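can u do me a favor
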């Protein structure tokens, strides 16, 4: 919750939960309660495991977990899986989480999907050498950098790690640029780290050192904090293509369900949809539908038995199987609940059709974007959508 995206994700999830509770809740009037604890700390793995244990100790009738914005396992291996708690992740993209447990699933693709999109775009632009800068100790950044290195088929002259307050920052940037790479892929998440990196690059660019360099951006920069930095040297075109480009999961913004979610989020929290927000909204409904399905088989006699049913129902309610009843948030929870009680269902939400495969992954469309500046204001501009 120390990152901007943490709050945005929580607000998106709460929007779904409030809609469900305000329309009668699940079962015979049960409300869904969200208990949020932060993984903020010098070691997010330790902090997250501690937070998960605290929730287990403090919560009555605990059904399962939602993982936070970071790509790390966040206590999943240490706490959640051994204790058989179901988990739905909105944005945990670490490759090691594929098929980690039948109790774990995510509404996002592994980092290798984003890496493939970026390497294909680099090849389309004719970029033949790319150095890699990544944030040391951040699982998302490290895993995405590794996936990119594995996917990129041309020259990688340097792979350099960066951390907050690094006394060797300038020498590391010189190492990154030493071989004059045609592009730099930057895989970072924490503003305290990447603000130092981009500011140092700006300071070193007084002699137009980077005027022939392309910049590949990870989806960790898809937020307002990035626009507070001196990044004019990233703008414009080079060799007939954008000097900067990146990739991020993208819902179909023209769909009825996305528009419905966006309006509800704006009305309740007065902010627009951010990265992965649609996924967090959808997982709230998937949990609710899984809970509702479980009431058909057993009352909440023991929470452990009920939780096992919920875990078993998560994937079926979101899979597209011929003959399933389609349910969507825009039709209202009362109607969705009635369908879940009567039919096998297929949930389609703000992020699309949330089909979870046998590995626990959901394949999502990606947007290729660039950073532009107009009338002194930075923004993201869509280059193309990859379905």
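np, heres the sequence
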């Amino acid at each position: 919750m120390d990152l901007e995206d943490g709050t945005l994700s929580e607000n998106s999830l709460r929007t779904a939960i409030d809609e469900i509770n305000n329309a009668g809740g699940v079962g015979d009037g049960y409300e869904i309660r969200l208990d949020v604890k932060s993984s903020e700390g010098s070691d997010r793995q330790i902090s997250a495991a501690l937070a998960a244990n605290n929730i287990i100790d403090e919560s009555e009738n605990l059904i399962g977990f939602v993982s936070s914005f970071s790509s790390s396992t966040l206590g999943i291996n240490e706490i959640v899986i051994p204790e058989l708690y179901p988990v739905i992740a909105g944005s945990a993209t670490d490759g090691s989480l594929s098929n980690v447990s039948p109790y774990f699933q995510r509404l996002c693709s592994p980092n290798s999907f984003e890496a493939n999109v970026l390497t294909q775009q680099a090849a389309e632009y004719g970029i033949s050498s790319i150095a890699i800068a990544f944030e040391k100790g951040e699982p998302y950044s490290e895993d995405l950098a590794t996936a990119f290195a594995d996917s990129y088929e041309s020259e990688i002259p340097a792979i350099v790690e960066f951390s907050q307050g690094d006394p060797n920052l300038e020498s590391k940037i010189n190492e990154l640029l030493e071989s004059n790479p045609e592009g730099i892929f930057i895989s970072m998440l924490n503003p305290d780290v990447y603000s130092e990196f981009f500011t140092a690059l700006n300071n070193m660019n007084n002699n137009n050192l980077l005027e022939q360099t392309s910049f590949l951006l990870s989806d960790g920069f898809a937020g307002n904090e990035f626009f507070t930095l001196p990044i004019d040297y990233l703008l414009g075109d080079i060799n007939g293509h954008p000097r900067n480009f990146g990739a991020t999961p993208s819902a179909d913004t023209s769909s009825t369900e996305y528009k419905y979610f966006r309006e509800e989020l704006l009305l309740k929290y007065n902010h627009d949809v951010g990265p992965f927000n649609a996924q967090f909204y959808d997982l709230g409904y998937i949990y609710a539908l899984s809970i509702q399905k479980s009431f058909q088989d057993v009352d909440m006699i023991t929470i452990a038995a009920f939780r096992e049913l919920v875990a078993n129902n998560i994937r079926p309610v979101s899979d597209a199987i011929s003959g399933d009843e389609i349910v969507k948030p825009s039709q209202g929870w009362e109607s969705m609940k009635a369908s879940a009680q009567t039919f096998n269902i297929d949930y389609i939400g703000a992020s699309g059709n949330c089909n979870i495969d046998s590995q626990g992954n959901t394949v999502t469309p990606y947007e290729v974007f660039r950073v532009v500046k107009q009338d002194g204001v930075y923004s993201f501009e869509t280059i193309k959508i990859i379905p």
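Residues 103 and 258 are 27 Å apart (CA to CA). hope that helps!!
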